[in-house]
Amino acid sequence: MTNEQLWVEPVGTLIIARMRGMPTEALLRECQERVLQLVRDTGCGKVLYDALEMEAPHVDVVLSQRKLDEEIPDVSLRRAIVVPNTKLAYLARLAFGEGDYRVFYSDITAAIRWLEEK
Fold first, then answer.
1. What is the pLDDT of residue 92?
2. What are the structural domains, with CATH classification, of the chain?
């Protein structure tokens, strides 16, 4: 994966995962692995997914995220997904299904506020 497409780093009390361009199943898996490694390393389960520069993937790629979530060990994650439009919002809801997450439209500040509520 190119570094231009995926960036995952701890920032303060959050883990920020930023994806750009067209995601693939491999990119989603790499993102998930890096997020979970940081959760283990930092003990922080608050994750901000910045998808503002991401293109809408095919539904098969979206559903692969749901499979990845089913494989997560007992880890408490609170996730905020920031999207630029309703299409990506819908796909994010498909991708994450059930769980402690919320989708935000282009509002990173509100997403961070929500993550830090707990």
1. 96
2. 6-116 (3.30.750.24)
